[in-house]
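In practice, a research group might receive sequence data for several interacting partners and want a quick structural hypothesis before committing to experiments. The following worked case mirrors that situation: the sequences arrive first, and a predicted assembly follows.
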Amino acid sequence: MSETTYREALRQALIDAMNADPDIVVLGEEVGLYGGAYGVTRGLIDQFGPERILDTPISEAAIVGAAVGAAMSGLRPVAELMYVDFVGIVMDQLANQAAKIRYMFGGQIGVPMVLRSQGGTGRSAAAQHSQSLEAWMAHIPGLRVAMPATVNDAYHLLRHALTLPDPVVFLEHKGLYVQKGTMDPAKPDAPWGKAVVRRGGTDLTIVTYSKMVLESLAAAEQLAAQGVSAEVIDLRTLNPLDDETIAASVRRTHRAMVVTEAHLTGGFSAELSARIQESCFDHLEEPVARVAGEDIPIPVSPPLERGSVPNAQLIAETGLWLARRTPPAWAAQ
Amino acid sequence: MSETTYREALRQALIDAMNADPDIVVLGEEVGLYGGAYGVTRGLIDQFGPERILDTPISEAAIVGAAVGAAMSGLRPVAELMYVDFVGIVMDQLANQAAKIRYMFGGQIGVPMVLRSQGGTGRSAAAQHSQSLEAWMAHIPGLRVAMPATVNDAYHLLRHALTLPDPVVFLEHKGLYVQKGTMDPAKPDAPWGKAVVRRGGTDLTIVTYSKMVLESLAAAEQLAAQGVSAEVIDLRTLNPLDDETIAASVRRTHRAMVVTEAHLTGGFSAELSARIQESCFDHLEEPVARVAGEDIPIPVSPPLERGSVPNAQLIAETGLWLARRTPPAWAAQ
Amino acid sequence: MTLDNKLLHALYRDMRRIRSLEERVSELFVRSESAGSMLHLSIGEEGVAGIVRAMDTQDSFTTHHRGHGIFVARGAEPARMLAEIAGKADGYCRGKGGSMHIADMGLGHLGANAIVGGGIAHAVGAALAYKRKKQPRVSVAFFGDGAMQQGILYESMNLAALWSLPVVFVCINNQYGMGTRIDRATANIAFDERARAFGLDGAIVDGTDVELVHETAERMIGNARNGKPGFLSITCYRFYGHARMDKSPYRDAEEEAAGRARDPLGKARARLIERGAKAAELDALDAEVAAEMDAALEAAVKSALPPVDTMFEDVFGPDQQKPTPLRARLNAMLSEATR
Amino acid sequence: MTLDNKLLHALYRDMRRIRSLEERVSELFVRSESAGSMLHLSIGEEGVAGIVRAMDTQDSFTTHHRGHGIFVARGAEPARMLAEIAGKADGYCRGKGGSMHIADMGLGHLGANAIVGGGIAHAVGAALAYKRKKQPRVSVAFFGDGAMQQGILYESMNLAALWSLPVVFVCINNQYGMGTRIDRATANIAFDERARAFGLDGAIVDGTDVELVHETAERMIGNARNGKPGFLSITCYRFYGHARMDKSPYRDAEEEAAGRARDPLGKARARLIERGAKAAELDALDAEVAAEMDAALEAAVKSALPPVDTMFEDVFGPDQQKPTPLRARLNAMLSEATR
Ligand SMILES: Cc1ncc(C[n+]2csc(CCOP(=O)(O)OP(=O)(O)O)c2C)c(N)n1
Ligand SMILES: Cc1ncc(C[n+]2csc(CCOP(=O)(O)OP(=O)(O)O)c2C)c(N)n1
Ligand SMILES: [Mg+2]
Ligand SMILES: [Mg+2]
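A structural hypothesis for the assembly, expressed as tokens:
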């Protein structure tokens, strides 16, 4: 058990996994000498050598394609995609190849690989380096999708992903790498596929994942100060998706809000909202509210970038309204 | 006004648009000599010549990328992607380039292009040639998405798409090309962006698009025979999305079902379900039901392929249940 | 028989089995027993047998959508191939993949692919695994001339050369990508130059001369095994339409006649006879193969369709959470029992 | 001044303005006035000025993420560039794009791109439009050596050669892609061979010799205008880290010293002096440029941030349906007034 950062927890997970499983190799742009664009693989090339930590050319499609072939041939590759925004170049290898090979081949073989990437806003990285595209992957049968919010999950979800027989898209958030927290290699927060209630509450359920868990917890704090008890559920994985934990909570609180950084329209927030009303219709006092990224490309100018995604204040204001306390200043009169 | 097929209506739309606008060019694999994998561009190369009907190599990324550059330089390209399943190769050019250029460049210029493609099951074309991936495109700000179900819409939606200042993803269904119907070049079924009520009803609203409109109408027929009056709404475009028509209907019928061929999880059916409960919460007697494709890759074997997507019978059975008449045979006792 | 007669005889047999199988695929369609019509015949491309025979048993390969012939040469069971093409339970993929997705890990077939260029990088990844595990294995990526215009091929060649991987890239240049003749798809058809520019060995040979194909492939696969990846393009002609529905209106009769005259099977047969083989003995071989394929066809037709519920299997690995069927979801939501 | 002195003098001025602008970009960051830290300086790559001066006013171009220098040489207003890099309303893109997405249709800048290889095909498409409209224009795609391993480049080259398009592909080979030296990214760095294999003219020149770059570019752009597309790689060295935060720990001091000694600006200055220019007059020019850039920097810093509501503009064309802001959606759902 130790205090560390999200980045170091990911790095430690790779180190421990690679020590436990000699078939694991890491490949991607700048994962070796450079240590990873966000430092997650720093030093690994010295520890494991260039045979297991492979710096690649800027050839995303071939990187993922090679990872697929290697995964079918006895290795367990961890391919790194520097920004999730580049997934548009590899969606064929990911969605048509990695995800479908087991199925198309009648179960003969699987593709045990992990595609690590990171997304989100916060660095004025503009429209092609700030997206949250998990909805694309979560729509494809055959792919697992993990999105850790905490330091301990960064470690355990990655460790578990590296034991699965199927492809896992592992999405980090660029704004979480420096996040501090406690890591206990002996104790995951919960089993793979189970959501975790990060804060208990009775008036309102907030369902979220990745960095928005932090914003939601901050919002729950503000809400508490105003007499609204909000429960915050961290999904941890979008596939598998833990419907039970969500439904159990909403059936108690009778009010639900879904929070994502991703664009609202067609985002995973829609799937969550749809499932909540499917499973809790008779228990809902109010419609399920979605607080999500605006339906616009991410602008580079800091105030606009900040304004384009949810934050604790917006979540709290919406929660207060949903709980039928005071409407926000921006409420239509 | 004439009786024709969906394929011919699309072909006529291209011909009329190209005659009206000399800047329109068609480019893609087999669009010229071969006449299009599904015959939509048959004969166009003879009529407009190889300068305007360009057969390309099998280079989807460059085809769409070149279309983007051409659209920024005075042409209005219609790029054809033979199967929507190949969109995984072009998502970067589509979602990071075409969709964001106007925004990233502060409104200086747009990308007036149409990406035509087709999807769906029905030909035992297997997992990489049978998908319905509209959810990927509908999640991206800056893209319009049209999915015609009728012969007249095939003509008018394509004509209108070819007048817009922005990129339009125009998705046909391989099972509709031979569909017969009436085309009136003088009269669209409705303005661009407006949904059309294909059949009026009072007990239940079915919201759908593309080929599932036909299955839903057939289901409505079966439902009528059993005393349930179902209204069928054809969205025609997913972006723009006509929330008003959907809400107005559900507020009358108090019951809603969303039908898509696309996989259920993370599909556009989720967005529609979420929006319906957001706009009609106080009016709903039952949760919004989703009838969608199973969360599995499309199998090649005909009975499995058929079983993996909705059909009129399943829609009718679900509608009957939702209207609280008889539950289906497969209902849990 | 002299040694090279033995080899040519074996290759002739492989090629005859390919053509004979493909004729049954066609028949399967005509009898409307096939799963769909997206069936791509490799008739005219039987020269691939020369490459397959140059591979060791532990070597692996990926193919494009026109991969029946390659797999037959590798030793596939015709009945299981035809059953898969018919979408039957006895097929190589339990009727889930079909003609464009046949695979068999037992024979090192890492899979046919319906995405042009889609399987090329998989062979590179397999080669990476062999190198890392110090196994003396080679992986071969088979694809058509159309894939020569797909970017992922060059990314794959670059990786192979950079990492000295045991992989060979094989282009089956049958002159066409659907209705597009190769000279309408590229300005320079000297594909070997591309391979060399990326640091690979490169060669183009007459694909109708199966002995030449075999000899070149042996050299290249040998070099690959020693860390020098290569590219081989075999020139041939697509005898029939792109898929079962295509009547090739885009090419004229003379061209087709000339193309079909470039017949790897006929050439091998003539050579065997030159070298003293008896026509009668070859006819007997042909008849024996025909009988084998007829039996396979009947077996495939008799094979059962997979139970519909098997569609929920194989999405994820065994003991992993399965997808929830739609009816189960609707039940949870609407049934008084479960609601 | 003789004619080529005039030219070199003009090129020296362009290059000085590039370096001077980039120094202000750096200062903008140090003063934490920049929008983020993803700022890629083209110091060491000023030789691109030779290519830009070989373009006609009606020609167009796309750039990669390290495109400031190219645009300065093209005649950009430094104040508007710096304002964009600062995310200000007066920027070329109203503060929406930033350093990696500067564009200006007025000067034929079809856009910088943050996707390696992302803008290459756009130049091909522009060239297609010029050919179709019979306009005597050329489009130039600028990209880095890293993009030489992106598949879309080869698909683009193939299209350009096949269709004889007026396009030139320009690789700015600064030896590095982030921390990866080019010899760790590919087995064969003779990139001109790749271009020729796809049917293009291909050349590699010393990017620190701006006159040579200009002369070669003039020839290639001229050929492109006549339907013979080309590829030009200019060899140079990335003086500083990849982006503002990178201290280049992956390369040693000696290499960096040697690389920085290969200075296009210094070389041009020495040549001008050889040819009789006075150091004092060049110093005066440098000072004048410095003053211009200082003023631009102050203007950018003073420029206002865009109003937050402008974020909803420019998603779609004018008079097209705009995206619905989240608060408007929540109002429709939760406000008693609208519900
Ligand atoms: C990425 C992709 N683009 C287009 C297609 C449609 N398609 C299937 S086969 C084919 C022609 C392929 O030609 P070639 O590679 O020469 O193989 P051949 O059919 O001649 O064996 C095309 C365009 C596809 N399946 N995948
Ligand atoms: C498709 C894609 N992959 C990776 C990146 C991350 N990235 C940004 S710049 C860069 C290096 C590019 O090197 P090069 O093309 O030589 O340009 P340079 O930075 O040297 O000017 C990388 C890997 C990206 N932006 N886009
Ligand atoms: Mg071919
Ligand atoms: Mg570089």
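Before designing any experiment, note the following. Chain A is about 35% helix and 20% strand. Chain A touches chain B through 54 residues (CB under 8 Å).
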